[in-house]
Each structure stands twice: as structure tokens, then as C-alpha cells.
Design brief:
Layout: E1 5-9, H1 12-27, E2 33-37, E3 48-51, E4 59-63, H2 73-81, E5 85-91, E6 97-103, H3 108-117, H4 119-127, H5 147-167, E7 168-177, H6 181-186, E8 192-194, E9 196-197, E10 203-213, E11 216-225, E12 231-239, E13 242-250, E14 256-264, E15 267-274, E16 282-284, E17 292-293, E18 304-311, E19 317-324, E20 332-338, E21 343-345, E22 351-352, E23 359-364, E24 369-373, E25 382-386, E26 392-397, E27 403-404, E28 416-418, E29 425-434, H7 438-451
Length: about 450
């Protein structure tokens, strides 16, 4: 039986966070919750959580140092120090509770809201035993946090990024690493000779997914067009490491990214991430063929980012994992299981971590590794492999892959994909190119996401 959860909110901002948390709980099947709003002067000003009939301050949101979260003490410290991730905790009066890590935004207020937005996942972690221990909440400091100074520092950094993006553009390309995935983990890759492939100006390639079948090696990538600002999925066959026969296999009115391709139950299946609410499974007859919806399979859970699926031997989906784009696509990991009738969220798997939640390529059942990306700060700077207990096995940045044949070191890596035997490994990477159209292309990349009603 699901516990009854009472969210006690004071201000309108707190109530909005409580309502979002309640929506997250209900999507997981817990309908035993309600929001009670009280005047700020009638009780604690912070957002609190109670269980059963108890509407007292059973749990409160605090930062990593135990100070009231909404005061923004730790957020201010991170902004002033130039840090890009901050810890938020949901704790009882003894300091035990659950913990997550979210990205630091441009200024204090949106950073605080980012922490409040993951209240629902933190409640789920607490209910399912994801306990932490530490110092109890310390209450309010006598000295107010330096919000104005932190905002000035954050705005100055943001202005610098705006100026840089106005005259530069990030080019993403893909490369076949000269070794196995075990070599990557052991950092046994050679020091040079990496060849990056893909468009250099009118588009870019990212999110590779490698497939080898019958001796044929294919790579599926997101191709983002500079003019349209939308991604499509392209397939390219590999001959001796060189990509040829580039074919568009899927293009819709939505932005498409993160292709995943599977050979299960005697047929090919595939998924993509999109901004649409409904995302079907796709199928095709041969590698390189155009994808079509697989009408005999259920659509993926809505608003699931960077989804990776596990199937039974017959090719029916059993489990899908990704991040919850409704709450925070960069930080809230969720897993769903299929019971033959519908998708049910496995709340014992929920966790919050902006550095270790969002998928970045392959989920390897044999080795127990899952590729994830670091979404704090500069997007696309690093990928990691996690073992089943969420401990990073290795972290890969642009500096960790061999130097390229064009003598330009990539600034970041955010996708790692490899075959079942681990012998074929591809990654993506990016660098900046100076162009007077940088600002225009950046606006086009963001235009669809702002207008899309999916």
C-alpha cells in the first residue's frame, strides 16, 4: 500500500513545487497524497513533507550543508565559486533522508527552483529507503546569503557565454576509437590518430549508436541541420572505419536525437528521443532502410529522455530506462517495466544526479555498465560508465581520447556506444568554430523546443 504523503506549502512558489511533486508521485501510481497550503506566518516557511495524518515538518528541503534550501546559501556559494552542480537534501530532524544533485543555473532564484523541482523524486527515494546520514538541519543563518553578489557573478559568466555563442558554433562529429571498450576503461588507447567524421558546417552529427550484423557495421546518428534547427536520424555504413552510404532513416516535424537500434525477436527495432509526447517503437527490414512505426508494440512512456530498452527473447519490451523530461531531463533517472497491459514506474530505481543520470549511449548487460553523461555546466563535456551500484567506472573527456588527425583536440565527449562483444567503439565529440552566424544558428537550435507543444 502506498504511503499517504502530505505536502505542506506556504508560499505560492512552494505550492507549485508541491503540486509538481504530487504529479510525479501520481505518475508512479501513488494517489495517496495531497497538498495543504498554509499562510507563511502560520507555520514553517519552508516546504515540508508529512506522512499519514501528520502534517508537521516531518521532512524539509535543505542544502548539502544542512541550511534551509530556499535561502540559497549553498547555491550562492556555488555561483561565487564557479561550481556548476549543487546538492539538495530532503531530511528529517536527525539529518537522515534522501539526496540529489542538480545543476546550478544562471542566478540564485532559478537554481533554487531547480532543487525544489526534484522534490517528488526525493520523496520517492526516501520512501524506498535511499537514506543518507549527516548533520541535522541547522536552521537559518543569522547572516543572509550574498544573493546579489552571486547573481552578479552568474550574470557575468552568462554574458560571456552569450558573447562567445554569438561568434562561434559547436561542431559535433563522430569517431571510431582504436580499441575495445575494455581498452577505453583501462585507458589503453593510443595517443594520436583519431579520425573525426561528419559534416563540418551545414550540420553536425552526434549521439552515435553502432550496430554490427553479419559482418556489416553501421552507425546511426542524430544529424542536426543548421538551417532547420531540427535533428533527424541518419544511417551510415562503415567500411574499414570510414562512413559511407549516408541515408536518412527517420525525419518528422519534431526534433529527433539519441537513436537506439536493437536486433531482437528476429527483427530490427529502434527508438529515438523526441519532443513529442507520444514516441513509438520503430522497425525496418534491413540496416539502412527507412524506419516505420512498429504498430504491434506500445509507445514508450511519455516524455522519457534518452531511453534505452530491454526486451524478452520474443522481442517484446520488458523494461525501459531514461530521464524524466517533465521534471528534469538532465538529472532525474527513472525506469519503467511492462506488465503486458501498461508501463509501471519502478520507484525503487529513481535517483537524482545531474552528473550521472542521463543516458549517453550503451547499456551493457554483459559487463553491467551504463553510459551516462555529465549535464552540469557546459553540456557535452564528459561521459562516464557506471556499474550497477552507480559508481563511476571511468570518466571520458575530450582529453582522454586520442588526438585527432586534424591536430585539434575535442573539447568534450558525451556519447559512448559499443557492440555486444565490446570490440567496436564509437564516440562523439565537439569543438568550437568561429563564425559570424553563431548567434543565428544557436537561436535556430532553440526555436523548435520553445514553440513545440509536444
Amino acid at each position: 500500500m502506498s504511503p499517504v504523503i502530505v505536502l505542506v506549502a506556504g508560499t505560492d512558489v512552494q505550492r507549485a513545487a508541491a503540486e509538481d511533486a504530487l504529479a510525479f508521485l501520481r505518475r508512479g501510481g501513488n494517489d495517496s497524497g495531497r497538498v495543504v497550503q498554509q499562510p507563511v506566518d502560520a507555520g514553517p516557511g519552508e516546504l515540508t513533507v508529512g506522512f499519514g495524518a501528520d502534517t508537521g515538518a516531518t521532512l524539509t528541503l535543505v542544502d548539502g550543508q544542512g541550511w534551509d534550501w530556499e535561502r540559497g546559501d549553498e547555491v550562492c556559494r556555488c555561483l561565487l565559486a564557479g561550481e556548476d552542480a549543487v546538492t539538495v537534501r530532503l531530511v528529517d530532524r536527525q539529518g537522515a533522508g534522501s539526496r540529489g544533485r542538480v545543476g546550478v543555473a544562471r542566478t540564485v532564484t532559478p537554481s533554487v527552483k531547480a532543487g525544489m523541482s526534484v522534490l517528488g523524486p526525493l520523496i520517492v527515494q526516501y520512501v524506498h529507503g535511499a537514506r543518507i546520514t549527516g548533520a541535522p538541519p541547522r536552521g537559518s543563518r543569522a547572516v543572509l546569503p550574498p544573493v546579489a553578489a552571486a547573481d552578479r557573478k552568474g550574470n557575468a559568466r552568462f554574458a560571456g557565454r552569450v558573447l562567445r555563442s554569438a561568434v562561434t558554433v559547436r561542431n559535433w562529429q563522430v569517431a571510431r576509437l582504436p580499441g575495445s571498450i575494455d581498452d577505453v576503461v583501462a585507458q589503453r588507447l593510443p595517443g594520436s590518430g583519431l579520425e573525426w567524421q561528419g559534416p563540418a558546417r551545414g550540420a553536425f552529427w552526434a549521439d552515435p549508436c553502432v550496430v554490427v550484423d553479419g559482418g556489416q557495421e553501421w552507425l546511426f546518428v542524430e544529424e542536426l541541420g543548421r538551417r532547420s534547427g531540427l535533428g533527424l536520424i541518419r544511417a551510415a555504413s562503415s567500411q574499414g572505419g570510414r562512413l559511407v552510404a549516408h541515408e536518412v532513416v527517420l525525419s518528422t516535424a519534431h526534433h529527433l536525437s539519441y537513436p537506439q537500434v536493437y536486433r531482437v525477436g528476429g527483427r530490427w527495432l529502434a527508438t529515438v528521443e523526441t519532443c513529442a509526447a507520444r514516441n513509438p517503437f520503430y522497425t525496418f527490414d534491413r540496416l539502412g532502410d527507412v524506419w516505420r512505426p512498429a504498430d504491434d508494440l506500445p509507445p514508450l512512456p511519455p516524455h522519457l529522455a534518452d531511453a534505452v530498452v530491454r526486451f524478452d527473447p520474443s522481442g517484446r519490451p520488458e523494461e525501459v530506462s531514461g530521464t524524466d523530461a517533465t521534471v528534469n531531463a538532465d538529472a532525474v533517472f527513472v525506469r519503467y517495466t511492462w506488465d503486458g497491459q501498461g508501463w509501471g514506474r519502478d520507484d525503487s530505481s529513481v535517483y537524482v544526479d545531474v552528473r550521472l543520470a542521463r543516458g549517453a549511449g550503451t547499456d551493457d548487460d554483459i559487463r553491467g555498465w551504463r553510459a551516462v553523461q555529465d549535464c552540469a555546466g557546459t553540456y557535452g563535456r564528459a561521459a562516464s560508465l557506471l556499474d550497477p551500484d552507480l559508481t563511476p567506472v571511468v570518466r571520458i573527456t575530450g582529453a582522454d581520447v586520442p588526438a585527432s588527425t586534424d591536430r585539434r583536440r575535442r573539447k568534450g565527449v558525451h556519447t559512448l556506444t559499443w557492440t555486444g562483444d565490446g570490440q567496436v567503439v564509437w564516440c562523439d565529440g565537439w569543438l568550437r568554430r568561429i563564425t559570424p552566424l553563431g548567434g543565428l544558428w544557436r537561436l535556430r537550435e532553440r526555436q523548435h523546443g520553445r514553440a513545440c507543444q509536444g
